[in-house]
Design brief:
single chain; alpha/beta; 6-stranded mixed β-sheet; 16 strands; globular
C-alpha cells in the first residue's frame, strides 16, 4: 500500500473510527507531506472538529485544506473540500457562504466526486428545511454513486432521502430507503454511519407510531456513538421528540438543556443549537412552563432566521405562538400569525400544519370570532382521518371545538369519543405502565370537553361514564412484559445492591456521592429497559358498565368525585341510580388536604395531642368541600370513594360522615368493579414478611405467624427480594412489615426495604399474579404520584392490575408502635371472615382512644374490593 493511498483512506476512516482518523491526520501533518496529502489531513481534522468539536477550529482546517487542494492543482480534491467546507459554514449559521462554497464545488467536481458534492449539498438542503431541493440533489447523485459501486456514499444518500421523506410525512418511502441503506451498511466498516442508521430507524419507528421501538433503537444508537466517542446532538433532538410524544416533557427539557450547555462549552454547531432550542421550547410548552417555552422559542426563531432556515423558523414560530397563548395572551394579531404559520407549514408539506390551524381556531374562539374559528378549525379537522395518532387527535380536538361552537352537544361527544379511541389504541401499544400513564395527558382536553357537555345536559350517569373514560386507565390492564428479559433482571439486581450499599453508608454517616451517582445511572437503565416493552395489542379494555356497577354495589354506595372546570362534583352511585351533588373548588380541597397531612405527620409523634381537634376540624372542612350535600345521603351501608388523582392523599376515614363505616378507596369505579369480580386463588397461601430496621422490629409478624398456622414467614436473610417475589406470586394474603419510601420524582421506584435492598414497584410488575390481598404496614406505602390526565403511579397501583383485589396501606407517616395493635386487630377481623374494609373499620374502633392511635387509624385505608 502506498503512502498516498493510506492518506486518502483517512476520509472514510473519520466516520468509522473518528479518534483514530484524527490521530493519524496529525501524524501526516507532522511529516512535511505534499500539498495533496496535507489537504486530506486538514480536511479530516476539519470534519472531526465540525462534528465533534469547535466549529471555529474546523473552519480554519477546512480553509487550509481548500487552499492546499488548489496548490496541488486537483479540481476534484478542491471540490470535495469545498463541499465539506460548505457543510461546516451552514452549521456555523453562515448559510450564504456555505451555499456559495457548494456552487463552486459542483462546478469544480466531475463524475463520482461531483455526485458526492451533490449529496452533501442535499444534506445541507435538509438541514435548511428545503426538502424538495434535497430530494432533487439526491436524485441526481444516486445513479452515479451506484454506478461507481460506492456502497458507503450510496447508503448515505439513501439514508438522507429517507430522512427527508420522514420530514414530509412519507413514512413508507422512508422505511424502504432505510432498509436498503442498512443492507449496504452491513457490507462496510463504517461504524458511525451504522449508528446513524440505527438512529434513523428509531426515528422511522416513531413516525410509524411505535414509541417503545423508537426508544429502544435510539438507546442502541447512543450506545454505539458512545463506543466511538461521538457527541449525540441530533440524537438528543430526536429523543426529545419521542419523549414528548410519550408524555415525558420534563425529561425531554432536561435532555435538551444539557445538550445545549455542552454545545456552548465546546463552541459546537449553531444549527444543532437552534434545533435543540426548538426541542427545549416544545418540551417546556408541553410541561406547562410557558415562560421557558417563550424564551427558548424566541431565541430559536432568531437563530433559524440568521441561518436562513425558513422551514425550521416557521416551526419555531408555531411553538412561540403556542407559548404566548399558554401564558394568557389573546389577540387578533396572534390569530393572524397562527394562520400565516399554518399556511406556510402546509406549503412545506409539514405534518405540523393542522396543529397551527387548531391554534388559530382556539385563539379566534377565545376572542368570540366564530366565523374565523370555524374556518381554521375546519382545516385542522381534516387531519382526523389519517396520519400519526397525535395528528388524528389534533383533528378530533378541532372537530369537537367546531361542534361546541355550533351548539351541537352530540357532535362534541362523538368527536371526543373518536379522539379518545385513537389515544386508547396508541396508549395500549406501550408496554410500560409509566408510559401509558403519561400518554393520557394528550386526551385531557377531549375528556374535559365531554365532561362539561355531560354536566350541561344534567345527566349524572353520562358524566360518570365520561369521568371514568379517562381516569385510572393504566389499571385496566397489566403492564406488558417479555417472558424473560435478562438485561432488565440484571439491572434490577445491580440497582438493589447499590441502593443497599448506599443506605448502609448513610446509616454509618459515610458520604455516598459515588454510590448515588451509580444508583441514578442504574435507575435510568431500568427505566429505559421497561420503556422498550411494547404493548400486546391496541384497544382500551373494558368500558364501564354502569348497570353492572350498580348491581355489584348491592346495598353499598360509590362516590365518584369528578372535577369539571375546577369544581368537585359528587356522583353518588347506588340503589339503582346515579345522583349528582356539587362540592367545592378543587384548589381549596387540595390545600385543605395538605393541611390535614401536615397535622397527621405531627400526630404520629407523642406530645402533639393538642393538634387533634385542629385535624378533626380540618376533616369536617374537607367533607364540606368534597362531599357537599351527599354526606347526608349516604345511609348506613358500605361506601367506596373514587377520588381524582389530585386528592389521592386525603385520609378519607377522618371525614365525619365516613369515619365509622365500612370504607374503601379505589382509583376508578372500573378498577373497583374489576377487583370486586376478581376470584381469590384456590387454596391461596399466607405470606408474612419482616424487613430490616423497623423501630418495633415488625412486632406483629411473630403473633400473626401463630395466628396463621402454616404461613410462610420471611425474615432476616430470608427476606430477600427474589425469595419474597417468588412467595408473593399467587398468594392469597400477604403482610409486609417493611420500611416504605415514596419517590415523587419516579413513583415506580417507590420501595419496601428488604434484607438485600429495595423491593420496588417495577419488581411487582414482574409477578404473574400479585397476592389477592396485601397489607403494607409501614409509612407512605399508599402514596401515589398523579401523572398524565388522571392517572396514579406507585406501589398500590402497581399491584391492582396484577390480580390484587384489595390492599391496606398508609398515605402518611405513622407511629410504628401504634401500627402493631392496629395490624393485629385488622388480622383478627380477617380470620373471622371479614373483608379488608370491614376489618379495618373494626380495627380502628378497637384502638386506644388517644391522638397517636387515632391518627394511625386514619392514615390507613383499604383500596379495592377484597
Amino acid at each position: 500500500m502506498t503512502a498516498g493511498s493510506s492518506v486518502l483512506e483517512l476520509l472514510p476512516l473519520v466516520f468509522a473510527d473518528p479518534g483514530g482518523a484524527r490521530a493519524r491526520a496529525r501524524e501526516v501533518l507532522g511529516s512535511a507531506p505534499p500539498p495533496l496529502h496535507a489537504s486530506v489531513a486538514h480536511q479530516v481534522l476539519g470534519i472531526w472538529e465540525r462534528d465533534f468539536g469547535d466549529l471555529r477550529i474546523a473552519l480554519r482546517h477546512l480553509r487550509r485544506a481548500r487552499d492546499l487542494a488548489a496548490r496541488a492543482e486537483s479540481a476534484d480534491r478542491e471540490a470535495d473540500v469545498l463541499a465539506t467546507l460548505g457543510v461546516a459554514l451552514v452549521h456555523a449559521g453562515r448559510t450564504r457562504e456555505g451555499l456559495a462554497a457548494f456552487e463552486r464545488g459542483v462546478a469544480r467536481g466531475t463524475g463520482h466526486t461531483r455526485a458526492r458534492v451533490l449529496f452533501r449539498r442535499a444534506y445541507v438542503w435538509w438541514v435548511l428545511g428545503h426538502h424538495r431541493e434535497a430530494l432533487e440533489d439526491v436524485r441526481r447523485a444516486l445513479p452515479v454513486l451506484r454506478g461507481a459501486g460506492d456502497d458507503i456514499w450510496t447508503a448515505r444518500a439513501l439514508t438522507l432521502r429517507a430522512t427527508v421523506h420522514l420530514a414530509l410525512g412519507a413514512v413508507d418511502r422512508a422505511v424502504a430507503d432505510f432498509t436498503a441503506a442498512e443492507l449496504l451498511w452491513d457490507t462496510t466498516g463504517q461504524e458511525h454511519d451504522k449508528a446513524d442508521a440505527v438512529e434513523s430507524r428509531g426515528l422511522a419507528a416513531f413516525r410509524s407510531g411505535d414509541i417503545p421501538a423508537a426508544l429502544r433503537l435510539l438507546d442502541e444508537a447512543e450506545e454505539r456513538y458512545a463506543k466511538l466517542g461521538t457527541p449525540t446532538y441530533m440524537l438528543s433532538v430526536r429523543r426529545c421528540e419521542v419523549l414528548m410524544a410519550a408524555g415525558l416533557a420534563p425529561e425531554a427539557l432536561t435532555e435538551a438543556d444539557a445538550a445545549i450547555a455542552l454545545l456552548d462549552r465546546i463552541g459546537g454547531q449553531s444549527t444543532r443549537k437552534a434545533e435543540l432550542l426548538l426541542a427545549a421550547a416544545r418540551a417546556a410548552r408541553s410541561a406547562g412552563d410557558a415562560h421557558t417555552a417563550t424564551d427558548r422559542a424566541a431565541v430559536a426563531v432568531r437563530l433559524f432566521a440568521a441561518q436562513r432556515r425558513t422551514w425550521w423558523q416557521t416551526h419555531a414560530r408555531l411553538v412561540l405562538i403556542e407559548a404566548r397563548v399558554a401564558a394568557g395572551r389573546r389577540s387578533g394579531r396572534l390569530v393572524a400569525d397562527a394562520a400565516a404559520v399554518a399556511e406556510r407549514l402546509a406549503a412545506f408539506g409539514s405534518p405540523a400544519a393542522p396543529e397551527a390551524s387548531l391554534l388559530a381556531g382556539r385563539i379566534a374562539l377565545a376572542l368570540g370570532r366564530t366565523a374565523d374559528a370555524e374556518r381554521h378549525l375546519a382545516v385542522a379537522a381534516r387531519s382526523r382521518h389519517g396520519g400519526r395518532p397525535t395528528a388524528r387527535m389534533t383533528g378530533w380536538a378541532a372537530q369537537a371545538l367546531r361542534a361546541r361552537a355550533a351548539g351541537s352537544r352530540r357532535g362534541v361527544l362523538e368527536a371526543c369519543r373518536r379522539g379518545l379511541d385513537v389515544l386508547d389504541d396508541h396508549r395500549m401499544t406501550l408496554g410500560a405502565s409509566e408510559l401509558r400513564a403519561h400518554a393520557t395527558a394528550q386526551g385531557a382536553e377531549l375528556a374535559a370537553l365531554a365532561q362539561e357537555v355531560s354536566l350541561d345536559q344534567g345527566d349524572p350517569r353520562r358524566l360518570l361514564v365520561w369521568s371514568e373514560r379517562w381516569r385510572a386507565t393504566v389499571l385496566a390492564a397489566p403492564p406488558a412484559r417479555p417472558p424473560e428479559d435478562p438485561a432488565l433482571l440484571s439491572g434490577l439486581t445491580a440497582y438493589r445492591e447499590i441502593a443497599a450499599r448506599a443506605e448502609g453508608a448513610r446509616v454509618d454517616g459515610r458520604p455516598v456521592p459515588a454510590l448515588e451517582r451509580e444508583q441514578r445511572r442504574l435507575e435510568r437503565e431500568v427505566r429505559s429497559r421497561t420503556r422498550h416493552i411494547r404493548g400486546a395489542a391496541p384497544g382500551a379494555g373494558d368500558r364501564l358498565d354502569v348497570g353492572r356497577l350498580l348491581d355489584r354495589l348491592g346495598d353499598g354506595l360509590l362516590l365518584e368525585l369528578a372535577v369539571v372546570a375546577g369544581r368537585v362534583h359528587v356522583l353518588l352511585c347506588g340503589r339503582g341510580r346515579v345522583r349528582r351533588f356539587t362540592g367545592g373548588p378543587l384548589a381549596e380541597a387540595v390545600a385543605e388536604a395538605e393541611h390535614v397531612q401536615a397535622g397527621l405527620r405531627r400526630l404520629a409523634h407523642p406530645g402533639a395531642a393538642a393538634r387533634l381537634p385542629l385535624v378533626e376540624a380540618a376533616g369536617l372542612r374537607l367533607q364540606e368541600l368534597l362531599l357537599g350535600e351527599a354526606a347526608a345521603r349516604l345511609g348506613p351501608g358500605p361506601v367506596v370513594v373514587v377520588p381524582p388523582g389530585a386528592l389521592h392523599r386525603v385520609p378519607w376515614a377522618l371525614l365525619p360522615a365516613l369515619r365509622d363505616r365500612v370504607l374503601s378507596v379505589s382509583p376508578s369505579a372500573g378498577s373497583w368493579l374489576r377487583a370486586r369480580e376478581t376470584e381469590p386463588p384456590h387454596g391461596g397461601r399466607t405470606v408474612l414478611v419482616r424487613g430490616p430496621g423497623l423501630a418495633t422490629g415488625g412486632a406483629e409478624v411473630p403473633e400473626l405467624a401463630d395466628r396463621y398456622g402454616g404461613a410462610t414467614v420471611l425474615e432476616d436473610e430470608d427476606a430477600q427480594v427474589p425469595r419474597v417475589l417468588a412467595e408473593l406470586d399467587g398468594a392469597g394474603l400477604a403482610h409486609l412489615a417493611a420500611h416504605g419510601t415514596f419517590r415523587a420524582d419516579s413513583p415506580l421506584f417507590s420501595a419496601l426495604r428488604m434484607a438485600d435492598g429495595p423491593l420496588i414497584a417495577h419488581d411487582f410488575e414482574r409477578l404473574a399474579r400479585s397476592p389477592y390481598r396485601i397489607i403494607l404496614s409501614s409509612c407512605d406505602t399508599a402514596r401515589l404520584a398523579s401523572v398524565g390526565a388522571d392517572e396514579l403511579l406507585g406501589l398500590v397501583t402497581a399491584l391492582l392490575p396484577l390480580g390484587t383485589a384489595g390492599v391496606v396501606a398508609s398515605s402518611a407517616p405513622v407511629n410504628d408502635a401504634a401500627v402493631v395493635p392496629l395490624m393485629l386487630a385488622l388480622h383478627k377481623g380477617l380470620t373471622a371472615g371479614l373483608g379488608l374494609a370491614e376489618a379495618l373499620r373494626d380495627a380502628r374502633a378497637a384502638l386506644p382512644d388517644d391522638a397517636v392511635h387515632q391518627a394511625t387509624g386514619w392514615a390507613f385505608a383499604a383500596f379495592g374490593a377484597a
